[in-house]
Specification:
- Strand 2, helix 2 and strand 3 form a beta-alpha-beta unit.
- The chain is 47% helix and 16% strand.
- The protein has 252 residues and is α/β, with parallel strands linked by helices.
- The termini are far apart.
- It folds into two domains: 204 residues, NAD(P)-binding Rossmann-like Domain (Rossmann fold, 3-Layer(aba) Sandwich); 34 residues, no CATH class.
- Helix 1 packs parallel to helix 2, helix 3 runs parallel beside helix 4 and helix 4 runs parallel beside helix 5.
- It is built from eight helices and seven strands.
Length: 252
Protein backbone atom coordinates (compact mmCIF):
# COMPACT_ATOMS: atom_id res chain seq x y z
CA UNK A 1 0.00 0.00 0.00
CA UNK A 2 1.36 3.38 -0.95
CA UNK A 3 1.61 6.12 1.63
CA UNK A 4 -1.02 8.16 -0.21
CA UNK A 5 -3.57 5.40 -0.73
CA UNK A 6 -6.72 5.99 1.29
CA UNK A 7 -8.81 3.20 2.77
CA UNK A 8 -12.50 2.63 2.09
CA UNK A 9 -14.96 0.36 3.88
CA UNK A 10 -17.95 -1.07 2.02
CA UNK A 11 -20.56 -3.02 3.99
CA UNK A 12 -22.64 -5.74 2.39
CA UNK A 13 -19.86 -6.00 -0.18
CA UNK A 14 -19.86 -9.72 -0.96
CA UNK A 15 -22.28 -9.37 -3.88
CA UNK A 16 -24.51 -7.07 -5.89
CA UNK A 17 -24.18 -3.32 -5.41
CA UNK A 18 -21.65 -3.64 -2.59
CA UNK A 19 -19.28 -5.80 -4.63
CA UNK A 20 -19.51 -3.41 -7.58
CA UNK A 21 -18.76 -0.46 -5.29
CA UNK A 22 -15.77 -2.24 -3.77
CA UNK A 23 -14.32 -3.01 -7.20
CA UNK A 24 -14.90 0.54 -8.41
CA UNK A 25 -13.28 2.17 -5.38
CA UNK A 26 -10.29 -0.11 -5.83
CA UNK A 27 -9.96 1.03 -9.44
CA UNK A 28 -10.14 4.60 -8.12
CA UNK A 29 -7.06 3.90 -6.00
CA UNK A 30 -8.50 3.05 -2.60
CA UNK A 31 -7.54 0.11 -0.43
CA UNK A 32 -10.90 -1.56 0.18
CA UNK A 33 -12.27 -3.44 3.17
CA UNK A 34 -14.97 -5.83 1.97
CA UNK A 35 -17.33 -6.26 4.92
CA UNK A 36 -20.12 -8.80 4.98
CA UNK A 37 -21.86 -11.02 7.49
CA UNK A 38 -19.79 -13.98 6.31
CA UNK A 39 -16.09 -13.21 5.85
CA UNK A 40 -15.59 -16.08 3.41
CA UNK A 41 -18.33 -14.65 1.15
CA UNK A 42 -16.23 -11.51 0.67
CA UNK A 43 -13.06 -13.32 -0.34
CA UNK A 44 -13.93 -13.74 -4.05
CA UNK A 45 -14.38 -9.95 -4.28
CA UNK A 46 -11.01 -9.46 -2.57
CA UNK A 47 -9.39 -11.92 -4.96
CA UNK A 48 -10.81 -10.05 -7.96
CA UNK A 49 -9.48 -6.75 -6.61
CA UNK A 50 -6.05 -8.20 -5.87
CA UNK A 51 -5.85 -9.86 -9.28
CA UNK A 52 -6.32 -6.41 -10.81
CA UNK A 53 -3.48 -5.03 -8.70
CA UNK A 54 -5.52 -3.57 -5.86
CA UNK A 55 -5.36 -3.97 -2.10
CA UNK A 56 -8.33 -5.43 -0.24
CA UNK A 57 -9.35 -7.25 2.92
CA UNK A 58 -12.41 -9.37 3.69
CA UNK A 59 -13.89 -8.88 7.16
CA UNK A 60 -16.90 -10.67 8.62
CA UNK A 61 -19.19 -8.51 10.74
CA UNK A 62 -22.79 -8.16 11.83
CA UNK A 63 -23.23 -4.40 11.38
CA UNK A 64 -25.97 -4.37 14.02
CA UNK A 65 -23.56 -5.70 16.68
CA UNK A 66 -21.81 -2.79 18.39
CA UNK A 67 -18.79 -4.72 19.65
CA UNK A 68 -18.33 -6.54 16.35
CA UNK A 69 -18.44 -3.26 14.42
CA UNK A 70 -15.83 -1.63 16.64
CA UNK A 71 -13.56 -4.67 16.31
CA UNK A 72 -13.99 -4.83 12.54
CA UNK A 73 -13.19 -1.15 12.03
CA UNK A 74 -10.14 -1.41 14.29
CA UNK A 75 -8.94 -4.40 12.26
CA UNK A 76 -9.34 -2.47 9.01
CA UNK A 77 -7.40 0.45 10.43
CA UNK A 78 -4.60 -1.86 11.52
CA UNK A 79 -4.35 -4.01 8.39
CA UNK A 80 -5.29 -1.59 5.59
CA UNK A 81 -4.98 1.88 7.09
CA UNK A 82 -7.26 4.43 8.70
CA UNK A 83 -10.65 4.24 6.93
CA UNK A 84 -11.72 7.63 5.58
CA UNK A 85 -14.41 6.44 3.16
CA UNK A 86 -17.44 4.49 4.37
CA UNK A 87 -20.20 3.12 2.18
CA UNK A 88 -23.15 1.89 4.26
CA UNK A 89 -24.62 -0.59 1.82
CA UNK A 90 -25.52 -3.60 3.98
CA UNK A 91 -29.21 -4.32 3.79
CA UNK A 92 -31.92 -6.95 4.02
CA UNK A 93 -35.60 -7.15 3.15
CA UNK A 94 -38.41 -8.73 5.14
CA UNK A 95 -41.34 -7.67 2.99
CA UNK A 96 -44.94 -8.07 3.99
CA UNK A 97 -48.15 -6.10 4.27
CA UNK A 98 -48.53 -4.29 7.57
CA UNK A 99 -51.10 -6.64 9.07
CA UNK A 100 -48.84 -9.63 8.36
CA UNK A 101 -45.50 -8.03 9.26
CA UNK A 102 -44.00 -9.35 12.49
CA UNK A 103 -42.15 -7.26 15.03
CA UNK A 104 -39.11 -9.43 14.34
CA UNK A 105 -39.28 -8.54 10.64
CA UNK A 106 -39.52 -4.85 11.52
CA UNK A 107 -36.61 -5.02 13.96
CA UNK A 108 -34.37 -7.03 11.64
CA UNK A 109 -34.64 -4.46 8.85
CA UNK A 110 -34.21 -1.49 11.20
CA UNK A 111 -31.20 -3.09 12.87
CA UNK A 112 -29.26 -3.71 9.65
CA UNK A 113 -30.11 -0.49 7.81
CA UNK A 114 -30.36 2.13 10.54
CA UNK A 115 -28.54 0.76 13.57
CA UNK A 116 -25.85 -0.69 11.30
CA UNK A 117 -25.28 2.60 9.48
CA UNK A 118 -25.17 4.45 12.81
CA UNK A 119 -22.66 2.05 14.36
CA UNK A 120 -20.42 1.98 11.29
CA UNK A 121 -20.49 5.76 10.92
CA UNK A 122 -19.76 6.33 14.58
CA UNK A 123 -16.84 3.89 14.53
CA UNK A 124 -15.22 5.38 11.41
CA UNK A 125 -15.82 9.09 11.96
CA UNK A 126 -12.92 9.31 14.38
CA UNK A 127 -10.48 8.43 11.61
CA UNK A 128 -12.09 10.92 9.25
CA UNK A 129 -12.15 13.79 11.69
CA UNK A 130 -8.53 13.14 12.66
CA UNK A 131 -7.55 13.19 8.99
CA UNK A 132 -9.83 16.19 8.40
CA UNK A 133 -11.04 14.40 5.30
CA UNK A 134 -13.73 11.83 4.88
CA UNK A 135 -16.62 10.53 2.83
CA UNK A 136 -19.70 8.70 4.06
CA UNK A 137 -22.18 7.38 1.50
CA UNK A 138 -25.43 5.82 2.71
CA UNK A 139 -27.55 3.60 0.49
CA UNK A 140 -31.18 4.68 0.63
CA UNK A 141 -33.78 3.62 -1.97
CA UNK A 142 -36.68 4.89 -4.03
CA UNK A 143 -38.71 2.84 -1.53
CA UNK A 144 -38.12 5.73 0.89
CA UNK A 145 -40.93 7.44 -1.03
CA UNK A 146 -43.29 4.61 -0.09
CA UNK A 147 -43.75 1.10 -1.44
CA UNK A 148 -46.54 -1.37 -0.78
CA UNK A 149 -45.44 -4.30 1.36
CA UNK A 150 -42.30 -2.56 2.59
CA UNK A 151 -43.30 -0.52 5.63
CA UNK A 152 -40.11 -1.58 7.42
CA UNK A 153 -37.75 -1.13 4.46
CA UNK A 154 -39.34 2.16 3.37
CA UNK A 155 -39.13 3.59 6.88
CA UNK A 156 -35.51 2.51 7.23
CA UNK A 157 -34.49 3.97 3.87
CA UNK A 158 -36.29 7.24 4.62
CA UNK A 159 -34.59 7.31 8.01
CA UNK A 160 -31.22 7.02 6.31
CA UNK A 161 -31.94 10.24 4.43
CA UNK A 162 -32.48 12.16 7.67
CA UNK A 163 -29.40 10.48 9.15
CA UNK A 164 -27.39 11.57 6.11
CA UNK A 165 -28.42 15.21 6.35
CA UNK A 166 -27.72 15.38 10.09
CA UNK A 167 -24.25 13.84 9.76
CA UNK A 168 -23.47 16.26 6.94
CA UNK A 169 -24.21 19.14 9.32
CA UNK A 170 -22.21 17.68 12.19
CA UNK A 171 -19.15 16.52 10.26
CA UNK A 172 -18.80 19.18 7.59
CA UNK A 173 -16.40 21.34 9.59
CA UNK A 174 -13.98 18.40 9.72
CA UNK A 175 -13.78 18.06 5.94
CA UNK A 176 -16.18 15.11 5.92
CA UNK A 177 -19.04 14.95 3.41
CA UNK A 178 -22.07 12.73 3.88
CA UNK A 179 -24.41 11.87 1.04
CA UNK A 180 -27.01 9.27 0.15
CA UNK A 181 -27.82 7.35 -2.99
CA UNK A 182 -31.37 6.12 -3.57
CA UNK A 183 -31.31 3.42 -6.24
CA UNK A 184 -34.29 2.52 -8.32
CA UNK A 185 -34.64 -0.96 -9.81
CA UNK A 186 -31.17 -2.51 -9.86
CA UNK A 187 -30.57 -5.98 -11.29
CA UNK A 188 -29.20 -7.94 -8.30
CA UNK A 189 -29.79 -11.19 -6.45
CA UNK A 190 -32.08 -9.24 -4.13
CA UNK A 191 -34.40 -8.14 -6.94
CA UNK A 192 -34.25 -11.63 -8.42
CA UNK A 193 -35.40 -12.91 -5.03
CA UNK A 194 -38.29 -10.45 -5.06
CA UNK A 195 -39.39 -11.75 -8.47
CA UNK A 196 -39.24 -15.31 -7.18
CA UNK A 197 -41.35 -14.44 -4.14
CA UNK A 198 -44.10 -12.95 -6.30
CA UNK A 199 -43.90 -15.84 -8.74
CA UNK A 200 -42.78 -13.88 -11.81
CA UNK A 201 -39.89 -14.95 -14.07
CA UNK A 202 -37.01 -12.53 -13.50
CA UNK A 203 -36.75 -11.53 -17.18
CA UNK A 204 -40.45 -10.63 -17.20
CA UNK A 205 -40.04 -8.81 -13.89
CA UNK A 206 -37.17 -6.73 -15.30
CA UNK A 207 -39.04 -6.01 -18.54
CA UNK A 208 -42.06 -4.73 -16.62
CA UNK A 209 -39.82 -2.50 -14.52
CA UNK A 210 -37.91 -1.18 -17.55
CA UNK A 211 -41.18 -0.22 -19.23
CA UNK A 212 -41.82 2.23 -16.36
CA UNK A 213 -38.33 3.76 -16.40
CA UNK A 214 -37.72 6.79 -18.66
CA UNK A 215 -34.30 5.61 -19.89
CA UNK A 216 -35.88 2.30 -20.86
CA UNK A 217 -33.74 -0.12 -18.88
CA UNK A 218 -33.21 -1.37 -15.37
CA UNK A 219 -30.14 -0.32 -13.43
CA UNK A 220 -26.93 -2.25 -12.90
CA UNK A 221 -24.74 -2.34 -9.78
CA UNK A 222 -22.08 -0.42 -11.70
CA UNK A 223 -24.53 2.49 -12.08
CA UNK A 224 -24.55 2.86 -8.30
CA UNK A 225 -20.81 2.29 -8.03
CA UNK A 226 -20.19 5.18 -10.44
CA UNK A 227 -22.20 7.51 -8.23
CA UNK A 228 -20.32 6.39 -5.12
CA UNK A 229 -17.10 7.05 -7.03
CA UNK A 230 -18.19 10.65 -7.63
CA UNK A 231 -19.05 11.28 -3.97
CA UNK A 232 -15.67 9.84 -2.88
CA UNK A 233 -13.62 12.14 -5.09
CA UNK A 234 -11.50 15.04 -3.92
CA UNK A 235 -13.41 17.42 -6.16
CA UNK A 236 -16.80 16.48 -4.69
CA UNK A 237 -15.93 18.26 -1.45
CA UNK A 238 -18.68 20.88 -1.84
CA UNK A 239 -21.44 18.28 -2.25
CA UNK A 240 -22.83 17.16 1.11
CA UNK A 241 -26.14 16.29 2.69
CA UNK A 242 -27.59 15.31 -0.67
CA UNK A 243 -29.82 12.43 -1.72
CA UNK A 244 -29.40 11.44 -5.36
CA UNK A 245 -31.95 9.16 -6.96
CA UNK A 246 -30.18 6.83 -9.38
CA UNK A 247 -33.32 5.49 -10.94
CA UNK A 248 -33.30 6.19 -14.67
CA UNK A 249 -35.66 9.11 -14.31
CA UNK A 250 -36.90 11.82 -11.94
CA UNK A 251 -38.11 11.07 -8.42
CA UNK A 252 -39.49 13.51 -5.86
Amino acid sequence: MTATRRTAIVTGAARGIGAAVARRLSRDGFAVAVLDLDESAGKPVVETIEAAGGKALAVGVDVADEQAVNQAVARVAEELGAPTVLVNNAGITRDNLLFKMTAADWDAVMNVHLRGSFLMSRATQQYMTQARWGRIVNLSSVSALGNRGQANYSAAKAGLQGFTKTLAIELGKFGVTVNAIAPGFIETEMTAGTAARVGVPFEDFKAAAAAQIPVGRVGQPDDIAATVSFFAREDASFVSGQVIYVAGGPRD
